[in-house]
Amino acid sequence: MLLEQLINGITLGSIYAIIALGFTLVFGVLGIINMAHGEIFMFGAFMGIIVTSTLKWPLWAAFLVAIAVTAILGYMLERFALRPLRGKQGVSHLAPLISTIGVSILLENISHHLFGAGNHPFRNSFAEINFQIGSITVYLVQIIIFVISIILMMALSYWLLRTKAGKALRATAENLETASILGVNTKKIIILTVIIASAMGGIAGILVGMAFNSVNPQMGLSMGLKGLAIIILGGMGNVKGAMAGGLILGLSETFVVAYGDSGYRDAIAFIIIIIILLVRPQGIFGQKSAAEGR
Amino acid sequence: MVLEIKNICKNFGGISALTDVSIRINEGEIYGLIGPNGAGKTTMFNIITNMFPPTTGDITFFNRRITGIKPHNITDLGICRTFQNIRLFSQMTTLENVMVGAHCRSKAGVLSGVFRPKSQRTEEQQIREKAIELLELVGLSEYHDVVSENLAYGQQRRLEIARAIASDPKLLLLDEPAAGMNETETANLFDLIKQVQARGVTVLIIEHDMPLVMKLCDRITVLNFGKKLAEGTPEEIQNNPAVIEAYLGSEEDDEIA
Amino acid sequence: MLGEFINPYYLQIGSFILINIILAISIYVTLSSGQLSLGSAGFMGIGAYTSALLTIHFDLPILVGIIAGSLVAGICGIIVGLPSLRLSGVYLAIATLGFGEVMRVFFVNWESVTKGAVGLSGIPHIGRELLNFFRDAGFDPSSIGMRNNQFTYLLVLILLLLINIFIIWFFVRQNKSRVGRAFAAIKMDEKAAEAMGINITYYKVLSFTQGAILAGFAGALFAHVLAYISPADFAYHRAIEILIFAVFGGSEVILGAIFGATFMTIMPEALRFISEYRYMIYGLVLIFMMAFRPQGIIDENIMQWLKKKLPSKRGRSHGSRNQKHM
Amino acid sequence: ACGGNSSQSSGEGDKGGTINAKIGVISYLTGPGAAYGEAITNGFKLAQKEINEKGKVNIELVIEDSAGKQEQALSASQKLMSDDEIVALLGPTLSTEMNVVGPEADLNGIPIMGTSTTAEGIPQIGEYVFRNSIPEALAIPVAMEKAVKKYDVKKVALIYGNDDVFTKSGFDTMKEEVEKMDLEVVTTQTFQKGQSDYNAQLTKIKGLNPDLILASALYNEGAVIMDQARKMGITVPFVGGNGFNSPEVINIAGKAADGLFVATPWFSEKEDPKVQEFIKKYETEYGKKPDQFAAQAYDALYIMAEGLKNAGEADRDALRDALAEIKDLEGILGSFSFDKDGDVEMDPIVLTIKDGKFQIFE
Amino acid sequence: MLKVTGIETFYDKIQALKGISLEVEQGKIVTILGANGAGKTTTMKTIAGLLKPKKGKIEFLGEDITGLRPDQLLKKGIALVPEGRAILSSMTVYENLEMGAYQRNDKEVEQDIENVMKLFPILKERKTQLAGTLSGGQQQMLAIARAILSKPKLLLLDEPSMGLAPLIVTAIFKIIKEIKESGTTVLLVEQNAKQALKIADYGYVLETGKVIISGNAEDLLEDSRIVEAYLGKKSS
Ligand SMILES: Nc1ncnc2c1ncn2[C@@H]1O[C@H](COP(=O)(O)OP(=O)(O)OP(=O)(O)O)[C@@H](O)[C@H]1O
Ligand SMILES: Nc1ncnc2c1ncn2[C@@H]1O[C@H](COP(=O)(O)OP(=O)(O)OP(=O)(O)O)[C@@H](O)[C@H]1O
Ligand SMILES: CC(C)C[C@H](N)C(=O)O
Ligand SMILES: [Mg+2]
Ligand SMILES: [Mg+2]
């Protein structure tokens, strides 16, 4: 039981973490909460279904198509919902929040229109591969999800902290103007970031589709909300924090169900963040901003 | 004695920004706080106004211990500051900025603000008149309805001073008020600070503009690496070899440049 | 006669607009001190449930229920507002959004009192109660040629309109006072405000609580206008919708919040004829408006322009940046 | 497919005794539950066409979207009610919406009939409120009894969506019935709308080894629950409510759907020619199989037509009285009558899924 | 090497530059003087590509560079130390320096970083401190050091001495001279008019967005208009 629940929790947590990484990346660079990330993720999941079930192509093609489509969506998001707001005078920090909410509403309704309202099954023989360990069934997909989330986290950490491009990205995050006079092509960096984040959402979408066999136009919302909770939990723009936050949330949701009252499952994410924020207002791994009384 | 700084130490992580600094400032003085970059001057201001607490040490203001008191209460007691990096309420007009400065000297709450009894109207009128007067003092009265972020740099610095004075401070803390000003503007600033002093306000000023400091201050403390290096009148400081070596440099250095 | 001019459908929409305006103002008030709170939906729920339960179980008059609902929401506002002081920006936004979610889950799970997801029905309806009152007084709406629902909704609308006028007046005046200046100062630079002697704890909690009271008040009205509430009414979507009202209309000035609430309530109704596409259009409108007017439809410049156009000295609404002219 | 305003009324001339009537429809057409609203309006339109062709009554439908939200449902109902020519309302889709719209319609004296609202207490809202959908309180016990008998059930586990009025009231019925039947409840689990991971709940259920799982869920969630349960190795049967009864369950869950029991008035394999004709027509018109909601809507419009015929005129009060009188009307769901409250009187049948197909469970 | 002709720059509708023309010769130090709000910073930002001029032309080494992005200009060899020390406060001192060499791919970067840290020893001491927690003056040094690391052909300095201690001001001017001697051309904006003119070869004086005086630095030092307006009565 315990072991089984642990596996459930880690699987869920890893998924949350991958989604949160996408949020964190965009927040880290643009200081914007991309409210449409959940919907982009949902589109990734639908691409998986279309490619494997409708077109009957192999699974790897599904990943490629999902990455391509979500990357394009990411580009369009940047082009039409974020770029017009950048560098304009008098733009309140709320504007990008609202325009990405607009994108999320639009995407949800488009997918509703294209794919219909209900759940779509993700049928794939790969999703059926499992091992029997004692009385416990472990699915290969679960292991893959965990591994991918770890790989993505490490790759992102390394990229941000050690590579030149990563540093340029952090510089852009902090101050667009400064980064540009240091020679960073900020426009390119921003597009790149949004595209990478979106593609990560696309990957997560397929993984979720395979793991839970349920894909619908609304799935972006609840996953998106969890993702938001996690980046706050871990500290905005912090890669390790996203991973840790994802696992904490996945495990605690699972254990609330296993040993507590499943009715409170949806609240647990926010109860945890409220508690953590009171102790560490900047999140578990977040840093306090410098320069107080100058 | 207006302000007594007793054995202040401040550590940030491993860096000790201030080590055992004591200063006593008398009523009516203009007191200078100078020293190399990173010596801990701004940090001292932050500790006096309790933006953060000292690691050890105490500060008393008119013999009252003010360490640990909330910043807004410190302003209430009569200490007000300006910032090294100008921090005006950028979207407000010049006049409104100064009126905010008078906040702690007025008391209208929500209900009287909304229902406007006589007392509130008189108070509001007084604040406004006072703000206008202060704008005149700093030479900004013609800009009263300009949004403050559209003011030129030097004007913003003067506005910050007006805003601080609006809180009727007994002690005014100025952090590099002359930074970014040319010499003519600096000369105007000198006159302004003198006028403030004439109103009975004690001034503690951080400044790197030596001609200004030497002309303006009655006494000066020099900090270096968080420690007190010297204290004295401008002449004493100017001729103190340790200060020259650490901070002022000699005229010859100047000529090499 | 009269009945022909009064379409309860429009009255109904009008009532929702007026309730939404109060909600938009609730977020505007918290924003005016620089705090982005997405807890409005939660406070709205608290107000709605409190008032509904009191009027259903204790037979209290609706008025008492509504006042109690606003107060309870206000108290919760203080309780949430105090610890939230340590948070700012998005952290605050998401923590308060979380508070709303927690409240919703709480309403769902506290079945013995809230009836869970089934919701509370049989809540006294303001209009119907008023109708009964008039009937008892010997007045029948048909005597002036109105049907029952026309009459009830007309009463509701008039009542809400009066409430709105008062609330707007109140916050416009507050804005122009010492308290309003303190809010604005905190919004622009918290540290500097503190250094100028403003008790930021007090003012931040004050504006947070005012927002909570307004949201609770709107929630209570909502309960007595719909006569039925369930936890789903106070979920994430509501919080986001309220945020959109304020930001879309322009979060800097109170008129923006009012305009936003009005526009965003009417739009889905006006688009009924293309029902399938109307939420797509809603999304597109958000994207485009933000691209063209990121500060919201109504901002300071428009206010200035309006003031010039309407030379009347008593402009109905001014923003935080008041008294441009002495 | 289902546009906003009004679909065409075909009868051109008022010959003889044709009764012309406008009926308002409030349906869930945008948002997560739009699939239900779509099936329902399709059912209405199909029936409308047939009825108008027969010529006795000529019905015009005015369809409004509620997006599944109470305020919108109320606005829509106000819009419809304020049109004096509209004699009755059909819908709204959800019980939550009906709880708001019902009292308003009752107050204004316009008959309203739910075709999919299955929660407790709906027809009791007022004299003018009716429904033709079988309430969960009627359907679920029947299915439970049969399943319990067949599998000799002693221990049950419950799982339900606790943030939705419909699944919650279905659960209440299940719980009541469990107590009546004296079964042991090993655990009660809940889930929330939009959730996609039920593994934690199911793992717990699995550990407690129930003989039967009672699941109050809409088909979207229900199908996924079954799928995940079977993957985990839970093999016991499921009993679900009316929301669970949809061909979509088989579509989503595949062979994992085997072992589901539901009680319903609607069975598509019934050898009644009326039923088969309906299915054929529906499929040619809309390209998919009708579900119970389409069927209930279809019957509902016939009930309205019958009421109008009996009332003899398109008048709200007359129609109400005529509706209340309706007895033993034959429809595709079977023989139909209203009880004294305006609730449906009908015996449901129990279906089970076997080999990927709904079958009558004997 | 730099030739600016008739540039006009706007902030929304406010015209900050009303047709500025100036020229910077290779290997020289040219200084721009002017009161607060005269348009000095705007000129620098326009040259560095942060602002786009509505009218006018900017040429660098004979090539039209009007309207290019800052990163493209840096590639061509124009680096800016902006007013108000735009350091990256959430990155460490060392990372800030690395960012200075962002466009370089040669192997000497590390060595060069060591060298500039010798120029400003405090930076070496605070290598791993977050730049945002440096004192005001330390930040200014970091900003200059960072710009040097991009090895520019033309260095634009906007009030580099602001907020610096007297000794450091002296040092900074010395460094500027050294930079020039090492072959980099410098365009310098200063409030400290006297010091600036002392090291400069040529000077321009701006007023409300226009050039009102220009000439050789020595001549300007003597110019009565300048003495009065910028060197103040009390120039020691
Ligand atoms: N939050 C902090 N964390 C770490 N170190 C800090 C922090 N704040 C200040 N310091 C360090 O404390 C020292 C003193 O800084 P302070 O700002 O007081 O200098 P200052 O004397 O005002 O210098 P300047 O004249 O350049 O403004 C500096 O070395 C600075 O790097
Ligand atoms: N972001 C801005 N928006 C609007 N007006 C601006 C902006 N920045 C500068 N200005 C205006 O443009 C004019 C020129 O400003 P600029 O900053 O170039 O002056 P400066 O010569 O650098 O002054 P200082 O010595 O204070 O740095 C000023 O009148 C200023 O008010
Ligand atoms: C469409 C159906 C699932 C509606 C459900 N029977 C209800 O009463 O809410
Ligand atoms: Mg300092
Ligand atoms: Mg400048």
Automatic annotation (TrEMBL), chain A:
Q: What is its main location?
A: membrane
Q: Does the keyword Heme apply?
A: no
Q: Name one Pfam family in it.
A: BPD_transp_2
One of the record's GO molecular function terms: L-valine transmembrane transporter activity
Top-rank taxon, per record? Bacteria
* Keyword annotations: Amino-acid transport, Cell inner membrane, Cell membrane, Membrane, Transmembrane, Transmembrane helix, Transport
Q: Which family does it belong to?
A: Belongs to the binding-protein-dependent transport system permease family. LivHM subfamily.
Protein name, as recorded: Branched-chain amino acid ABC transporter permease
Species of the source: Peribacillus cavernae
UniProtKB/TrEMBL annotation, chain B:
One GO process term, biological-process aspect = D-alanine transmembrane transport
Entry-linked Pfam families: ABC_tran, BCA_ABC_TP_C
Q: Does the keyword Oxidoreductase apply?
A: no
Molecular function terms, GO-annotated: ATP binding; ATP hydrolysis activity; L-isoleucine transmembrane transporter activity; L-phenylalanine transmembrane transporter activity; L-valine transmembrane transporter activity
Q: Which residues form the ABC transporter domain?
A: 3-250
- Keywords linked to the UniProt accession: ATP-binding, Nucleotide-binding, Transport
Quote the cellular component terms of the Gene Ontology held in the record. Answer: plasma membrane
Q: Does the keyword Hydrolase apply?
A: no
Q: What is the protein's given name?
A: ABC transporter ATP-binding protein
What organism does this protein naturally occur in? Peribacillus cavernae
| Origin organism lineage | Bacteria, Bacillati, Bacillota, Bacilli, Bacillales
TrEMBL record, chain C:
Q: Which domain of life is it from?
A: Bacteria
Matches recorded under InterPro entries: ABC_transp_permease, LivM-like
Q: Which organism is it from?
A: Peribacillus cavernae
Sorted alphabetically, which keywords does the UniProt record give? Cell membrane, Membrane, Transmembrane, Transmembrane helix
Q: Name one GO molecular function term.
A: branched-chain amino acid transmembrane transporter activity
Membrane topology, as annotated = Multi-pass membrane protein
Specify one Pfam family. Answer: BPD_transp_2
Sorted alphabetically, the Gene Ontology cellular component annotations on this record are:
plasma membrane
Which compartment or compartments is the protein found in?
A: Cell membrane
Q: What is this protein's name?
A: Branched-chain amino acid ABC transporter permease
Question: Where does the sequence pass through the membrane?
Answer: 12-31, 38-56, 62-82, 89-107, 151-172, 212-230, 242-267, 279-298
Automatic annotation (TrEMBL), chain E:
One GO BP on record is: L-amino acid transport
GO MF annotation list: ATP binding; ATP hydrolysis activity; branched-chain amino acid transmembrane transporter activity
What SUPFAM superfamilies does this protein's entry cite? P-loop containing nucleoside triphosphate hydrolases
Keywords assigned by UniProt? Amino-acid transport, ATP-binding, Nucleotide-binding, Transport
| The keyword Membrane is annotated on this UniProt entry | no
Domain of life, per lineage? Bacteria
List the InterPro entries: AAA+_ATPase, ABC_branched_ATPase_LivF/BraG, ABC_transporter-like_ATP-bd, ABC_transporter-like_CS, BCAA_Transport_ATP-bd_LivF, P-loop_NTPase
Please give the Gene3D superfamilies that the UniProt record associates with this protein.
Answer: P-loop containing nucleotide triphosphate hydrolases
Q: Which residues form the ABC transporter domain?
A: 2-233
PANTHER family linked to this entry? HIGH-AFFINITY BRANCHED-CHAIN AMINO ACID TRANSPORT ATP-BINDING PROTEIN LIVF (PTHR43820)
Q: So what family is this one in? A: Belongs to the ABC transporter superfamily.
What is the protein's name according to its record?
ABC transporter ATP-binding protein
Organism listed in the record: Peribacillus cavernae
Q: What is the lineage of its organism?
A: Bacteria, Bacillati, Bacillota, Bacilli, Bacillales
